[in-house]
Amino acid sequence: MGADKIRGIVLNQIRYSDTSLIVKVYTDTYGLQSYLIKGVFQKRSQFRPALFQPMSVIQFVSQHKQGKELHYMQEISLEISFHQLHQDMGKNAVLMFMSELLSHAIHSQESDPDLFDFLIQTIQWLDLTTDSYAAFPHYLMLELSRFLGFYPKNSSFSDGATFDMMEGQYKKQQPEHPYFLDESLSEYLHQLASIVPEQLATLKWNPNYRRQLLGELINYYKLHLPGFNGLKSHEILKVVLG
């Protein structure tokens, strides 16, 4: 089997020995994969560690062998040069959230071109936007649930409804179990499902409700995604995004 040219989004990295890295990458061809990059911290290394910052979009060559958990990269280059994504404190905090979310939520080693394209587009939007992006983490979680198979049934919404997180739909009567959103948060979720990223700044949300909704979206993932035990980086967003 020959080597493939692959596009990938770096999710995270861990130091491996004094000079090397293991990088988890969501690829366009093979889904989620792990790669060993040897000697990246050596002075004469041809690959800069900055190539492997969270959510960096890279191109590389790799020869994949089925059943192998760790692969090697060659001819690595940056596909997209971001303008402010890793320099802006707020956007960097969102990147950390995005990295943690995707690392916990995506496990498939199969290609999903639609998901890959969605992630590329949302990363680029975050990089370039000059508008408020305080609701971007919520938008990301909601849209990602579409690819994971538990996107809310938005058509079931009506004024005064509550969102049943167990069933993933809105109901006029409050469920008997505790896993539901009150009327205000349900209205926020419905608004979120009705817009595109360019309209996020138009959401006039109460900051306390906005923070509550992010916590509830994390709970929604816990209910529907086996092995998903929550996130930690959203606590940083509370401080950075206000």
Characterise the protein shown here:
The chain is α+β, with helices and mostly antiparallel strands. It folds into 2 domains: 75 residues, OB fold (Dihydrolipoamide Acetyltransferase, E2P) (Beta Barrel); 152 residues, de novo design (two linked rop proteins). A 6-stranded mixed beta sheet has the order 5-3-2-1-4-6. It has a 3-stranded antiparallel beta sheet with strand order 8-7-9. A hairpin with a 3-residue loop joins strand 1 and strand 2. Helix 2 runs antiparallel to helix 3 and helix 3 packs parallel to helix 5. The radius of gyration is 19 Å and the shape is elongated. The chain starts with a strand and ends with a helix.
Can you lay out the helices and strands and say which pair or pack?
Blueprint: E1 4-16, E2 20-27, E3 31-37, E4 57-62, E5 70-72, E6 74-78, H1 89-105, H2 113-128, H3 136-148, E7 162-164, E8 169-171, E9 180-181, H4 183-192, H5 207-224, H6 234-240
Parallel strand pairs: 3-5
Antiparallel strand pairs: 1-2, 1-4, 2-3, 4-6, 7-8, 7-9
Helix pairs in contact: 1-3, 1-6, 2-3, 3-5, 4-5
